[in-house]
Amino acid sequence: AGRGPGKMAAGGTAEGQARFGHSVKGLLTEKVTSCGTDVIALTKQVLKGSRSAELLGQAARNMVMQEDAILHSEDSLRKMAIITTHLQYQ
Description:
Shape: rod-shaped
Radius of gyration: 39 Å
Strand content: under 5%
Oligomer: single chain
């Protein structure tokens, strides 16, 4: 009779360990999946940031080109105003 409960306890322990093992494997799988999802989200954010930096650089170059065009136009208008004044005197 002493051996019977020992066997049940041992069987119970083995069953408990198996359940615990499955539980740990399940938690580990969840954590790995969660980490994978986080890595994908981080990668997307980094790519989005680098794309934003690229777009900002392009916008800055476009503004410089526009500024040059505006300065050139301003200079042309000033010259035309001088020519107009000279023509009015004649």
